[in-house]
Amino acid sequence: MTTVTAPRPTLPAPARHGPPRIPAVLRHSATLAWRGIVKTIHSTDALLDVTLQPVIFLLLFVYVFGGAIAGDPATYLQYALPGVLVQTVVFASAGTGTGLADDLKTGIFDRFRSLPISRTAPLLGAIGADLVRYVTSGAIMLAFGFALGFRTNGGVLGVLAALGLVTVFAFALCWVFTALAMVVREPRSVQGLGALVMLPLTFGSNVFVPSSTLPGWLQGFVEINPVSKVADAARGLLTGGAVWAPVTTSLIASAVLVAVFGPLAVALYRRRT
Amino acid sequence: MNPVIQVDGLGKSFGATRALDGVDLAVRRGTVLGLLGPNGSGKTTTVRVLATLLRPDSGRARVLGHDVVAEPEAVRACIGLTGQYAAVDEALSGTDNLVLVARLLGLPRREARQRAAELIARFGLADAAGRRVRTYSGGMRRRLDLAVSLIGRPDVLFLDEPTTGLDPRRRNEVWDEVRGLAADGTTVLLTTQYLEEAEQLADDLVVLDHGRVIAAGTPAALKAEVGGQRLHARPLHPADLPAVTALVAGLMPGSVPAVDAAGELTVAVPDPAVLVRVAERLDAAGLPVAELGLRLPSLDDVFLTLTGRVATDTPEEAA
Question: Is A42 on the interface with B (CB under 8 A)?
Answer without folding.
Answer: yes
